[in-house]
Amino acid sequence: MNKPTILTGDRTTGPLHIGHYAGSLANRLRFQDSHEQFLLLADTQALTDNAHDPAKVQRNVVEVALDYLAVGIDPDRCTICVQSHLPALAELTMLYLNFVTVARLERNPTIKDEIRARGFGRDIPAGFLCYPAAQAADITAFKATIVPVGADQAPLIEQTNEIVRRINATAGHDVLPEAQAIIPKAGRLPGIDGKAKMSKSGGNAIPLSASPDEIRSAVRAMFTDPNHLRVEDPGRVEGNVVFTYLDAFDPDQDELAELKAQYKRGGLGDGKIKARLETILQNLIAPIRARRAAFSKDRAYVLKVIKDGTERARQRTEETKRDVVNGLGLFQL
Known about the structure:
By secondary structure, this protein is mainly alpha-helical. It has two domains: 5-189 and 298-328, 3-Layer(aba) Sandwich (Rossmann fold); 212-293, Tyrosyl-Transfer RNA Synthetase. Helices cover 55% and strands 8% of the residues. It contains 14 helices and five strands. The protein has helices spanning 18-30, 43-46, 54-71, 87-96, 102-107, 109-118, 126-129, 131-141, 154-171, 212-220, 241-249, 253-265, 270-296, 299-328; strands at 5-11, 36-42, 78-82, 146-148, 180-182. The strands form two sheets. A three-stranded parallel sheet has the order 1-2-3. The two termini are 35 Å apart.
C-alpha cells in the first residue's frame, strides 16, 4: 500500500526552538513510519525577508538539518531536501500566481500578521506577499495530503486548497490532491515573555540546542500571573506562559490538571510550577543537544543526507510539474 504523503519544512533563518518542536516536529516524528514524509529546508522562502543577508540563509541550511537529525528524524524514513535546488517549485509557483489575486494574498491572515509584525507597511517584498502561492507549490509538488503545522499556519493550507481546486477545475479533472493541516493540541506557543509567538528573531525562544543554564534562565524569566503575588493568592492559569508550556510538554496531564486546580484556589507558588517546567524541558532538550553535537562533528554525513534527499525530491517534484503542465494543456515541445 502507498503511504499518505506529508510535506513539512522550515525557513532556514536560524536553528530551531521548542516552539517548532511543539508546533510540528513532534508530529513529524510520530508519522515517520506510517507516512511518506518530505522535509523542506526552505531557503528560497527565507530570502523573502532576508534578501539583504543571503549568507545567513545559506549557513542555516545545515543548522536546520542538524536540528532535524538531532530530534530524531531518520533520513532513511524521511526525505530532507533543499528548496532552492528543486526548480519545479519555482516553476509551479509562477503558474499558481495566475490562479490567485493580489487581494486574496493580502487577506491571508498569516501574511497579514507577519506583515504587521515585520513593520513592512506597503513596502512588502513581492516574494513575501506571494508566500502562500510558493507554499502551495511546495505542498502540491510532492502531492502531499497532510501538512503538520502550527495553528498560525492553517490559513496557508486553506489557500493552497483554493489554488488546487482552481487548477483541477481548469484541467477538468483532479491533477492535484487537497491537503489537510494537522495542528498539535498545544497550538501556537507564545514567547517566554508572553508576547506573540516564540520566534528566532524575537529573542524570546528556547533553542533546541539550549544549554542547561539557558533553559534555567529562560524558565525563570517566564511570565506567570502578575496578580499572583503570594503563594496563598488564587492565580490565573489562562494566559499564564508557564502553564501554556506545561500543556504542551508535560507528560503527566492528570497531575498537571491537579496543579492547575490548586493554583486557581491558591496555595501553589510560581517557583514550584517553574521548577516542574524546567525539569521537563531539561529532560526534553538534553538528548537533542547531545545528538546535535555528535552530528555536527560529521558535516560530510549531514551534507550527504541533504544531497541524497534533494535528488529524490527533485524526481518527485518534476513528475508533478509535468502533470500540472499537461493538465493545463500548456504548449509541449
